[in-house]
Amino acid sequence: MDFSPSERSLALSEQLRRFLREEVIPAEPAYHAQLAGGADWRGWRQPQVMEDLKARARAAGLWNLFLPDATHGAGLTNAEYAPLAEIMGHSFIAPEVFNCNAPDTGNMEVLAQYGSPAQQQRWLEPLLAGTIRSGFCMTEPDVASSDATNMAATATVEGDEVVLNGRKWWTTGLGHPNLKILIFMGLTDPQADPYRRHSMVLCPVEAPGVRIERMLPVFGNYDEPAGHGEVSFDNVRLPLDHIILGPGRGFEIAQGRLGPGRIHHCMRALGAAERALSLLCRRATSRTAFGKPLAALGSNGDIIAELRIAIDQARLLTLHAAWTIDTQGIKAAMSLISQIKVVVPMVAQRAADAAIQIHGGAGVSEDFPLAALYAYARVLRLADGPDEVHRRQVAKLELARQKREAA
Amino acid sequence: MDFSPSERSLALSEQLRRFLREEVIPAEPAYHAQLAGGADWRGWRQPQVMEDLKARARAAGLWNLFLPDATHGAGLTNAEYAPLAEIMGHSFIAPEVFNCNAPDTGNMEVLAQYGSPAQQQRWLEPLLAGTIRSGFCMTEPDVASSDATNMAATATVEGDEVVLNGRKWWTTGLGHPNLKILIFMGLTDPQADPYRRHSMVLCPVEAPGVRIERMLPVFGNYDEPAGHGEVSFDNVRLPLDHIILGPGRGFEIAQGRLGPGRIHHCMRALGAAERALSLLCRRATSRTAFGKPLAALGSNGDIIAELRIAIDQARLLTLHAAWTIDTQGIKAAMSLISQIKVVVPMVAQRAADAAIQIHGGAGVSEDFPLAALYAYARVLRLADGPDEVHRRQVAKLELARQKREAA
Amino acid sequence: MDFSPSERSLALSEQLRRFLREEVIPAEPAYHAQLAGGADWRGWRQPQVMEDLKARARAAGLWNLFLPDATHGAGLTNAEYAPLAEIMGHSFIAPEVFNCNAPDTGNMEVLAQYGSPAQQQRWLEPLLAGTIRSGFCMTEPDVASSDATNMAATATVEGDEVVLNGRKWWTTGLGHPNLKILIFMGLTDPQADPYRRHSMVLCPVEAPGVRIERMLPVFGNYDEPAGHGEVSFDNVRLPLDHIILGPGRGFEIAQGRLGPGRIHHCMRALGAAERALSLLCRRATSRTAFGKPLAALGSNGDIIAELRIAIDQARLLTLHAAWTIDTQGIKAAMSLISQIKVVVPMVAQRAADAAIQIHGGAGVSEDFPLAALYAYARVLRLADGPDEVHRRQVAKLELARQKREAA
Amino acid sequence: MDFSPSERSLALSEQLRRFLREEVIPAEPAYHAQLAGGADWRGWRQPQVMEDLKARARAAGLWNLFLPDATHGAGLTNAEYAPLAEIMGHSFIAPEVFNCNAPDTGNMEVLAQYGSPAQQQRWLEPLLAGTIRSGFCMTEPDVASSDATNMAATATVEGDEVVLNGRKWWTTGLGHPNLKILIFMGLTDPQADPYRRHSMVLCPVEAPGVRIERMLPVFGNYDEPAGHGEVSFDNVRLPLDHIILGPGRGFEIAQGRLGPGRIHHCMRALGAAERALSLLCRRATSRTAFGKPLAALGSNGDIIAELRIAIDQARLLTLHAAWTIDTQGIKAAMSLISQIKVVVPMVAQRAADAAIQIHGGAGVSEDFPLAALYAYARVLRLADGPDEVHRRQVAKLELARQKREAA
């Protein structure tokens, strides 16, 4: 259990923190000013300031840090990347600046690990270069997607083609003007072993039959220009070589993709929680009521202490999960990955909620990023499996472990 | 402790529930479709469907039910009105349909109880008729307004004029096209007894020196066309007769205004909580995962039970507060009013959060009113005094009571 | 929903409160001093001071107040008795002083309502007089008794006899020197409709085959001289007329017995919660740390406020349940009875825990009744159905209600 | 942040776990059977089985593992000892078996680190040999001891003597038949700098003026034969060389003593939490209700998951605190030490409470160690500073840190 960051990770942390402070945070207002606004994604545009920041980040070597594959990316372990992801979590726009934003990160990992050379050349290269964006199509509107076996969309093999049908939603990035490629997961062989039934298919967004239906607001925000959207697939016909790793390998790929992705999500959420706590403390010491700074009133001290404790615990658990993936593989880390997925978003939600409360009305407005932090954390309790599914998984593994030990 | 609704209240309940089901809920989509959208309140407009609904509600006698004054309003007690307010809480647009929406209700109460005949004629009459809207200017952006003594805005008496200066925010209704009048609270005599320092002044929105600065989003929503806004007062000069009840009487009026207002808020919030629970139960029984309806999975049954219990308890407490105001006056109900202000918004927030969780991604989108319900409940934990101030008040009164009993 | 106590109830409340303050509380030390101590119930004895108090309470007319049957008892409704039960909850020894202690109350109710004249003469009369004590044998050590259908003990009809076999535990009062009669619940006809399978049988404690196995400590305390015990029944043969109401009527009786019993339990627990809160407030104002009374430090004010709110809500819910039983019958009150059973013991537990915390080490010692209050409340979350079973019931009824309303 | 146990620690863990399983756990019934019972400590005796176990543990080299001083003890770092302390936490009698029980551990550390050669020879030697027991006298009954400056007992220097006066309680081990020495903390110079006012004095228990007043039950248990007691000091005169490190050095010593002690407490409490969770899981899978194992009912799975998560997080935090003490010293670990003191006892309490609930009545009886585990965890929230004081400390340090970072 050695979670100490490596020298390289430490050096990158310092560089990243400086870049964030000097370049990213100051650019936030310009970024928001350059957004077009509104529910209609057709008018969304990529702010130029983002492209400028990306260029500078890339030049500084702060690029594709998430990718453990040293050929295509930084070649950091999960434990090495984790503190970097936390730093990026301090600003909503930071992950994209460093080409480390979901879902592109997961998609790039999939392509780097499982993609054919042709798939890599066509899609991985531009993604690594940050010139295109991608989406991931898993969740469906008409079923409880928390149970993956409910998946109703199909990826049927017909001759040398695979035909996609169905409706997906909460595809992040769907509204982005640079979106070019979707990874679609669908049912291929209902008779196969449950974990061999589904395929992952690379589907260009302009393929005939793909239709972006609408963007979905999250607590009223569209997270422009990436957005989260609903997309229908109506007899979308693609060559068989668009299937990643071949028919029926979808779950196998998903397993490998989700572990590190959850580490990234959680570390970024911890960065968000730290930012909320930091804003909370600043407000608590700068405003006065009943003759005292807010920090000295009522439960506020306890709230600060409890958040400090919760964040520190959650970070250690996440580092433990990262270290376990690195040293023992995904399978050994299954419970830990579900554990952090339950704990961290809730800690971030609590931190944002407490910070909102101490800010009063200002907390729910846009004068502070707190309402947005709250929405972000809240959604994370649903994305990549809701809390309930992960608790279920943790309980199952714990009961199995206890049974083994009692034997 | 007789909380039984009177026959009149029962009859109105039934009528109201029918009107809500048959007229209001079906009109919600049209209402939203007729909104203009955006952050710029200058373009906001009152949907025609609302005016139509108001006309029908008024014709049906479902009008000004909140006003205990029988001359100007329905003449119901707080306990009689409470269940009606809960029914209105099921739809965001319902309160205005029945001319029972905050802050006009509180402003009308103030004018009915404390206004001079001239003030009543000029402002109360059109408010009762629903032809104009009003705002209430208390909270300030630059101080912790949870401590009312922090109030920095001034209402200075100069000769036969009162001069208003300062900046207020979270004035609900500030963006409404029909907004005509503001009730402004400011410091008049810093040397007076703390509860005799402030005045409430009627300030027409078009008075020179009044400037609407901006509208404030709540979790990204502007609650158009009423909105919540920031407004500055720069040497606004008004005749002395614009002061309600005379200089230095502001806190006296506030006390009388806030008690019933909190009952209304809480009962409406209970209606919102019931709606959230109802949506939760519907989703829990209509979606299936792991081979079972969601209601049968994990903690979902317990969540439903806990919400049922929490809502029922909170309602009884609110009815108790209403009954206490009616039978023993505001002063005897001080602790209870603070108690419900702590409990009810939190129950509504919990209900909305639980309902969101069971809806998955749909819960945070606009496909269901849950994100809006959540934002509404969340803000209520800050409005009219944050939870912290009310808990502080409850504790203070409890310690005083215990001391008396021990003596 | 008129929870106002009747004039008779109010008068009894006042009388009871005075008796408690002047007679019962001052006698507590003598009572404890007269106990024999230890795990061996054979040496337990009834303190003389209890018999003296009983005589005075009876003379004062404060006797059998729990019994709604006016022929045998006070003839008060549940709503009338509820506040009296709360007052008794302030002292552990009070209920017995007034002959209102469980499980004798429930057993007397059963006999008054369902007992034959012969059963009433033999057992009800001396119980009403307080000269004997009784036990109730339902829970079993070898199965999860939260599911009543798990019950394994048998009450088999053989000719004109009923034969009892099995093992029961948590029979309160089993160690009492005056214990004479047990009400035993067992399976009579496994083939019958599930709610017609069990019988309730009056079993004298000295019947051959009845064997008191041991007393069970609760957090180390035996609650002497009543105690809670384990008892085995080994071919205990009794005449058929010892079955109450006849074979197979056990559940029917249990339903009638448990509703009011839960009201009593909950109201007493609220009395216990009030006592804990009162001790908490006294300590909070009489001890000083960091230059301030404890009440002014950290979250202590909020804790006091939250307890005040929780107790008041729980009391209103319990009164609502009592009123519903009185006016609409047990069946209409099913959800409410389960609701209070979930809420009230938890509130009492929280109050005791918070009071312990503020007392520091003194709180867990015997210098204050707080550890005992805690244990009492904690056990109540298990007795008469654990929280889990009641939440399950509330959820089931709520889902059914929602379904009806949606239809 | 390398928490990996060293090879030596790993080897000791394995040895310890085996010894626990093969020797200690099987001896628990004999140990309890050899206790004398009751409130009167004069009759308490040390069970022979404990002395036998101690002899075997010592022979096996499992002795004084807690002592970082390699001359007198095992010479393990805090991080190395932490997992061993957790293992000992699985059985109440284990710590003494390995001569690693509080408060002797803390007292031995003090003597090893600060004791004069004469003090070490007279008291440390027999303590290390396990032939005598010691107590620590800090908390006082008449003041809020959570604020150390409230301490009223005095250690007055008069010529070549120090004179002790005052009353202490919650001195663990006070009732032990082998108790020989107390470490007494008292006020020496009220005018000195606040952290130089107090002295720690070695006071033989048979010194004239020392009077054991009584033993204090914890939730009804006396924790015989060690016990927790109240002791008065009435003009106890001792030679000046009984002061450790000299007059006014008490706080300095206390600081050094409490850090590692809290690590030990917390790791043992985690062992206790694991035992509770293990019992919970066993019950959840071995009992059936409503046709399913309890583990599959309602929230039980979620409860198991939440406990697994909470324990794992709390352990990582405790290891982090241990590692920080080892690598950066006590001062750098101040916040972490307070953090674990808040978190771990609460986790253990929650685990015990949840395990009690799933065991039903059996959970609060002595058939399982759960009620005792609960009491142990509950007391730990008060001992060594109540939660409140530690949260206060964490908040203070966090606000200071945030201020530094913002600057």
TrEMBL record, chains A, B, C, D:
Keywords annotated in UniProt: FAD, Flavoprotein, Oxidoreductase
Species of provenance: Endobacter medicaginis
Subunit structure: Homodimer.
Official protein name in the record: Acyl-CoA dehydrogenase family protein
Sequence ranges assigned to domain Acyl-CoA dehydrogenase/oxidase N-terminal in this UniProt record: 7-130
A Pfam short name: Acyl-CoA_dh_N
InterPro entries with a match to the protein in the record: Acyl-CoA_dehydrogenase, Acyl-CoA_Oxase/DH_mid-dom, Acyl-CoA_Oxase/DH_mid-dom_sf, AcylCo_DH-like_C, AcylCo_DH/oxidase_C, AcylCoA_DH/ox_N, AcylCoA_DH/ox_N_sf, AcylCoA_DH/oxidase_NM_dom_sf
Domain Acyl-CoA oxidase/dehydrogenase middle per the UniProt entry, residue ranges: 136-236
SUPFAM superfamilies in alphabetical order: Acyl-CoA dehydrogenase C-terminal domain-like, Acyl-CoA dehydrogenase NM domain-like
GO cellular component: cytoplasm
Domain (Acyl-CoA dehydrogenase/oxidase C-terminal) ranges: 248-396
Cofactor dependence: FAD
GO BP: fatty acid beta-oxidation using acyl-CoA dehydrogenase
One GO MF term: flavin adenine dinucleotide binding
Family that this chain belongs to: Belongs to the acyl-CoA dehydrogenase family.
